[in-house]
């Protein structure tokens, strides 16, 4: 019984540490307010490790360093963050680049082959907000014949 309790405690501790390592939406909002955004990346496809989460300054270029240079196969920004990844240093045009939003790219090898294991830099910003569409209202447009075109049909011009 003692081994079972010890094993359960170790498993619970491992799960708790893993849960604490993944940023929550509240953490992401806090990062955005502080002018930072987060990006999660893994060296293997489908979010398989080794992996890392890094907080990045919004609006400025960041070169990948160490073991992540030319090694990333899955990458994604936090919710509310939009990033552009580059195959060249200093966020300059190279062989390829791509914009991404959450959840990102789980397998660069199949979705963006030129980027797979070729990323050298990243630039992030807060994701532009898109106004919510609440209604679609037809807008009358004058026709050459003097009538009005409304919702796909011509309306005769008044006499």
Q: What order do the helices and strands come in, and which of them pair?
A:
Blueprint: H1 2-21, H2 25-33, E1 36-44, E2 48-57, E3 61-63, E4 74-77, E5 81-86, E6 97-101, H3 108-111, E7 121-126, E8 141-142, E9 148-150, E10 153-155
Antiparallel strand pairs: 1-2, 1-4, 3-7, 5-6, 5-7, 8-9, 9-10
Describe the structure.
With 159 residues, this protein is an alpha+beta fold. The protein has a domain at 24-126: Gamma-B Crystallin, domain 1 (Sandwich). It has helices at 2-21, 25-33, 108-111, and strands at residues 36-44, 48-57, 61-63, 74-77, 81-86, 97-101, 121-126, 141-142, 148-150, 153-155. The relative contact order is 0.14.
In a few lines, what is going on in this structure?
It contains three helices and ten strands; from the N terminus they run ααββββββαββββ. With about 160 residues, it is α+β, with helices and mostly antiparallel strands. The chain has a domain at about 25-125: Gamma-B Crystallin, domain 1, CATH 2.60.20.
Beta-strand share of residues: 25-35%
Oligomer: single chain
Radius of gyration: 24 Å
* CATH-derived architecture of one domain: Sandwich
The largest β sheet comes out as:
4 strands, antiparallel
Rounded average pLDDT: 73
Distance from first to last alpha carbon:
95 Å
